[in-house]
């Protein structure tokens, strides 16, 4: 890991961002999870070596300065680009300290991560939840940890991620599963999709969200990296991608219609949300209800 100075931390205000977020925050650049499908490795993001973690060394000072100056309160999302709970965070505690600042200025937070390290900060997340919305999305792409080791080699196992969901649920924290991306010919099976939904429900997740086309995005530098890893872990699959998708950006599962029906049926069967507008309404309604109870 190396450190660099930063000029800004927060993005501009958006009225309706993903999962009701209004601002975006990246404290780190790059990631060491080694996910073979990560779109952030694409050339368009101008990250020379995405597998190296870079910490924005003055991030906390800038964040406090920016929050102090903001005129609109809102929800701050982190993790859309680089995981805020990479292994270095265990010692650096930059994400933890940022959450304390977010709490201090009465903002909410929306987190995307593949790491169970997020449970370390349940105490601060619970404090934020007393005045603002708190959402944690944990990405889980497969219920089979043998496949997890191949497509997300250095990330915590799916088992550990499900255990994190169990710890987060019931703490006034909105918690869900991001079942994305789906890799055609690898994890695009009804068995995998339904297993994730069942496990998510058992662990107390409020929702499982995925894209109806059950796809992975491939472009520029990322496509070459992905194909290299397919040859290493899934011999013969690369030729199927080339034949099926060519240079298509969205590589959708040939079984997407069957999978979407199975996905919806299993979510309905387990009484778990999957529609984004429904999830957003749930987050807003729950927050307002808790605020009425508080005051």
How would you describe this structure to a colleague?
With 295 residues, the chain is α/β, with parallel strands linked by helices. The chain has one domain (2-294): Aldolase class I (TIM Barrel, Alpha-Beta Barrel), CATH 3.20.20. The protein contains eleven helices and eleven strands. It has helices at residues 59-69, 89-92, 94-104, 122-128, 145-151, 158-168, 190-202, 220-233, 237-245, 256-269, 276-294; strands at 2-4, 23-25, 28-29, 54-56, 75-78, 108-113, 134-139, 174-178, 207-209, 215-217, 250-252. The strands form three sheets. Strands 2-5-6-7-8-9 form a six-stranded parallel β-sheet, sandwiched between helices. A three-stranded mixed β-sheet has the order 1-4-3, with no helix packed on it. The protein has a two-stranded antiparallel ribbon with strand order 10-11. Helix 7 (190-202) runs parallel beside helix 10. The longest helix is centred in the C-terminal third of the chain and has 19 residues, at 276-294. The model has no long low-confidence stretch (mean pLDDT 93).
